[in-house]
Specification:
elongated; mainly alpha
């Protein structure tokens, strides 16, 4: 037996949870990218490159690169968050089937959390590479634009040195760790929320199977049987009405025959 809509319910609710967690993660990532923006602006202003008409293209290019960094981090998170959700949905549907089989066979069902192994080293390595790639592109674009604008080599060297110093500093490592920890917390929260949905739907499956939840009928087969019973009852009523009409018709016919016979005798 399989109770309809349970797989759809698991899927829909799981993706609602996924979307909610992804939106929260994007907000956190945006805050971390803002920290990088502040650092880049500090490096430029420290070396005399202020946001004015002459240097607007430098700041615009920086924002474009920051947008690419944020997109890369978002894509990295979305891919893994979706993988976790898809695997959890497949596992939940298997558990629902197993739960119903156990109910039918009157055997015990044991729920086990599949869990999720988070590779923190892998996450940190990828995020660090994304930040490093951003600063490499940012440095190359900034140098090119400053050279075209006629800035001195000393100014350009100072900016390159400050960028390199930040990328290899403890501050950069701290930022990478913040991004990784944000992600770890979100994944743990996502996994926990998906587990809760699985448990809720498993409980609903049993309640619907036993028709016991809040006194309502959740067994669709029982609902169908009830519909068939009502239809059969109506058909029986119609049959009895037809039989009653037939009986009355027969009586009228018999009376008519007797009356006709009497008239023949009188003649």
């Amino acid at each position: 037996m399989y109770l309809y809509n349970l797989d759809t319910k698991v899927t829909n609710k799981s993706y609602e949870i996924l979307n909610s967690h992804m939106e929260e993660q994007r907000q956190l990532d945006s805050q971390r990218v803002s920290e990088i923006r502040s650092k880049c602006r500090d490096i430029l202003s420290k070396n005399g490159i202020f946001e004015d008409r002459k240097n607007s293209i430098v700041y615009q290019t920086m924002e474009k690169e920051l947008g690419s960094l944020e997109h890369s981090i978002d894509y990295f998170n979305e891919y893994h968050f979706e993988e976790i959700t898809k695997n959890k949905i497949d596992s939940s549907i298997e558990k629902i089937t197993s739960k119903l089989e156990c109910l039918e066979q009157k055997s015990k069902f044991a729920y086990e959390d599949d869990g999720y192994i988070y590779n923190n080293a892998f996450s940190e390595s990828n995020i660090k590479n994304m930040i490093y790639t951003y600063f490499e592109n940012y440095k190359a674009n900034t140098v090119e634009l400053l050279l075209k604008a006629g800035y001195s080599q000393n100014t350009i060297d100072g900016i390159e040195e400050d960028i390199l110093q930040y990328v290899t500093s403890k501050s950069s490592d701290v930022l990478t760790e913040k991004l990784s920890q944000d992600r770890l917390k979100s994944i743990e929260s996502l996994n926990g929320a998906l587990n809760n949905i699985t448990i809720q739907v498993l409980n609903e499956a049993e309640a619907r199977y036993r028709c016991e939840q809040n006194g309502e009928c959740y067994d669709e087969l029982k609902e169908k049987r009830e519909i068939i019973r009502i239809k059969a009852q109506k058909l029986e009523e119609i049959r009895m009405q037809i039989a009653s009409i037939d009986m009355k018709s027969n009586k009228l016919n018999q009376v008519g025959m007797q009356t006709s016979g009497e008239r023949i005798i009188l003649q």
